[in-house]
Design a protein that fits this description.
Structural class: alpha/beta
Number of helices: 9
Radius of gyration: 19 Å
Helix content: 25-40%
Low-confidence stretches: 285-289, 293-298
Mean pLDDT: 89
Number of strands: 15
Distance between the termini: 37 Å
Length: about 300
């Protein structure tokens, strides 16, 4: 009889994977996808409309031939995704025997791959001397993202803007102590963003947070939420990059109208694998505003 599947806890994942390991595995998965060795279902995500308690349920799956392993991901979480009370489990299956080999608690690795992919995409698009990071938001995603940016860029300053001053000051002190970098509190989003080489918005906002005029030439802006960048910035950006065209299509249309999917220039996969050249102009005096590395719901 086959052995029972092992349980890989969130603590196990954290112990086994460094930040650079996470980025390396993201790039490896993108390369496999480009090679056609990852099989996806149709549709890629099975979503259930929020229940009367306000929770979100969905299921995703994929088959990685290069390992080989199959994965079935089951997610349920409250409206506030920062809540520690959630279900994020992946069942790993031997594709030859169809027997489950492990169950992975993804409550730690979900955040890591989410912000790790953002920072990795930003590194592919940013100028080599990018050194100032503006973060809008003070939640778990924003705090974790700072660690990835600090490892992938030679940062000289981090600026943090958020609605709640007390929480912002707490996050600033925490980041400065953990990263050993100058971190300062910004009184407004505009104050944080103006002059920054890198911008990350990681909030629950349902309206635009950024203005095109705040973004300096050559800046890479990464947004977790579809509404955060706003129409003006998305339409005028030199390069609009998303994680997946099909997944973002409905969200963009709902937020910005029928023609908005046409704004997309490339995907992260196309940038990482060389199918799209990415940034082609390193001139910071360029008339247009910025490159957008927009990771909007992986």
């Amino acid at each position: 009889m086959a052995e029972a599947p092992i349980l890989i806890t969130a603590a196990d994942c954290q112990r086994l994977l460094s930040h650079l390991d996470v980025v390396d595995q993201i790039e490896k998965a993108l390369a496999w996808d480009a090679e056609g060795t990852i099989t996806w279902p149709t549709p890629r995500s099975l979503n259930i409309i929020r229940d009367k308690w306000g929770n979100d349920f969905h299921v995703k799956m994929a088959l990685l031939e290069s390992v080989p392993v199959g994965g079935i991901r089951v997610v349920s979480h409250p409206l506030d995704e920062s809540s520690p009370v959630n279900t994020r489990l992946i069942m790993l299956v031997d594709p030859e025997t169809a027997w489950p080999i492990a169950i992975v608690d993804e409550s730690w690795s979900y955040v890591q791959r989410t912000v790790g992919s953002i920072a990795m995409a930003a590194r592919k698009l940013a100028n080599a001397d990018a050194s100032t990071l503006a973060i809008v938001g003070a939640g778990r995603l924003a705090r974790t993202a700072a660690e990835y940016y600090a490892r992938l860029f030679n940062l000289k300053e981090i600026r943090v803007a958020s609605r709640t001053a007390s929480k912002r000051e707490q996050v600033v002190a925490e980041m400065a102590a953990r990263l050993g970098l100058p971190v300062r509190s910004a009184g407004s989003i505009e104050e944080a963003v103006r002059g920054a080489d890198l911008v990350l918005t990681a909030t629950s906002a349902t309206e635009a947070l950024l203005a095109e005029s705040w973004i300096q030439p050559g800046c890479v802006v990464a947004c977790v939420g579809t509404a955060e960048p706003g129409r003006e910035l998305l339409e005028q950006a030199d390069l609009f990059v998303v994680d997946n065209r099909d997944q973002l299509r409905k969200e963009l249309i709902a937020e910005y109208g029928e023609g908005s999917p046409d704004w997309i220039d490339s995907t992260v996969l196309e940038i990482v694998t060389g199918r799209h050249p990415g940034r082609v102009n390193r001139d910071r005096s360029e008339e247009h505003t910025s490159d957008i590395a927009s990771r909007l719901h992986l």
